[in-house]
Amino acid sequence: MFFFKKKRIGKTMGTMGHYRPNLSNITRKKPIKKTGFLETNTEKKILKNRLTQRRFSKILRPIVLILIGLTLYGISYIFIISDIFAIKKTDYDHDQIQVEDENPILAYMQNFKGTNIFLLNEADEENYLKSTYPQYKKVNIKKSLPGTLILELEEYAMVANLIYEQDGISRKFIINENGIAINTDTEDLSLPYVYFETDKVPTENQEVIKPEILQFILEAINDFESKFGMQILDTTYYKIAREVHLQTERYFYVWLDTELTVDEQLLKLKLSLPKLDIYEEDLKYIDLRISGQTGDKVVYMLN
């Protein structure tokens, strides 16, 4: 038999005879060459999409603008041009306005018929009506869609009959709590009477007496009647002298100063009662205008 020695592939390193592969004999994979075909196709698609979007935007933009314009016109037509929201009537409380034809504010409200309800500035109209008709304490205008106005009114309370007499001129008014003359040449027997002396003839729907003076007079009447149990027949107000004269049921006058408080002056009279019998003495007047709170300072005159 013949034995042949197998030839080793590669070489050994060192004396130990370690095996080292022959790298030169190992076949290497050749790298695949990149081509620009894929990238070119993708870029073309992106470019095509962009062009399509631009064309679509050019077409869509005017369409959107037209639609917006039509929408705005439609809204304007419905809310402003058409008569859908035109004012057709005015509602009010029939307990506040009993005679419709005689109420000046309700007559004024008829001017708004046919006006677009959104174009009405109710705040401006309220201010105008309050200044034109000062007898009203409250004037409110509310809107009720589509075409109704709601009117709310509140008048100042009527508190006194005012009588002006001077140089042969005599006029009667009923005045409200704000001092404004409302009704001319008439009177209300349930209200107190106030004679008014001034250098100016009062006119209707104008302030003829300051509200604070009117309040002073009413307070003096009520307090005197409640504290002394004696009715006041009438009152005279002297504007220049700043005095109020109360005529009692015993036909003597009580003089008051409008610059002092009612309580301060009536207290002086109350403190003087032990020395001055206002229920029995034949008095002409009692003057409480002198400053002080003691009965010693009460001045009076007998008939």
What are the main properties of this structure?
Rossmann fold; 3-stranded mixed beta sheet; Ubiquitin-like (UB roll); elongated; single chain; 303 residues; 26% strand
Query: Which secondary-structure class do the elements indicate?
Result: alpha/beta
Q: Within the CATH hierarchy, at the fold level, what is the topology of the domain at 158-302?
A: Rossmann fold
Portion in helices: 25-40%
The low-confidence runs, each spanning 5 or more residues with pLDDT under 50, are none
Number of strands: 14
Morphology call: elongated
Percent of residues in β-strands: 25-35%
Topology as a string of helices (H) and strands (E): EEHEHHEEEEEEHEEEHEE
Spatial gap, N to C terminus: 184 Å
Mind telling me the CATH class of the domain at 158-302? Answer: Alpha Beta
| Largest sheet: spatial strand order | 8-7-6-9-10-11-12-13-14
Q: Give me the Rg, rounded.
A: 51 Å
